[in-house]
Sequence to fold (159 residues):
Amino acid sequence: MKSELEIIGVEGALRLIRPSRIYKCSYLRAQAEGEFGIEGEQVRWFNIGTTIDAMAENPVRRVFWLVNGKDFIGEVSVTCLEMPVAPITYYCIRESQRGRGFATVMLRLLLPYLKELGYSVANLWIYHKNLASRKVAERNGAVADATDPSINIHYDIKL
Ligand SMILES: CC(C)(COP(=O)(O)OP(=O)(O)OC[C@H]1O[C@@H](n2cnc3c(N)ncnc32)[C@H](O)[C@@H]1OP(=O)(O)O)[C@@H](O)C(=O)NCCC(=O)NCCS
Fold:
């Protein structure tokens, strides 16, 4: 484990970091809150079963955590395989912290970093009924592919 926290971006008291064991207790507490998706459906945390070190060191599926002081708030992951498009595979805010703008900030801190890495577009697919997620993406400049009628809407974000 790296001894220093890898900070990707800062906004007020919020920091976007690479996963760190420093936040292990808070991360585990967040997972214990459960993860409720749309329509009350409970789904598993995406990275459950993956160690924090493995998450921090994976160069392909890069995971980032939003933290507030000592508290883990949420995570976002990006599959970094091919330039110039960075697919955002998933994001989630812990159940107790939703509706406070945190996902919007998390993405806002991530996007300049992806640009710095050399990507020119980030993309993501969002289930059409996931209005909260669509709002988060659209507030960060995501534009939907209006020609695609599928239930998962394809969005591009120009970096
Ligand atoms: C989607 C998710 C990441 C949003 O996180 P968040 O921190 O609550 O998002 P924000 O507070 O930044 O913004 C959410 C916005 O959607 C709104 N919203 C929340 N639920 C909504 C709903 N059912 N319908 C319409 N808008 C909704 C919020 O009011 C807020 O808008 P406002 O700031 O104008 O009030 C969070 O709900 C979550 O983790 N969901 C489960 C995992 C998931 O669906 N991930 C996305 C996969 S693509």
Remarks:
- The first helix runs from residue 24 to 32.
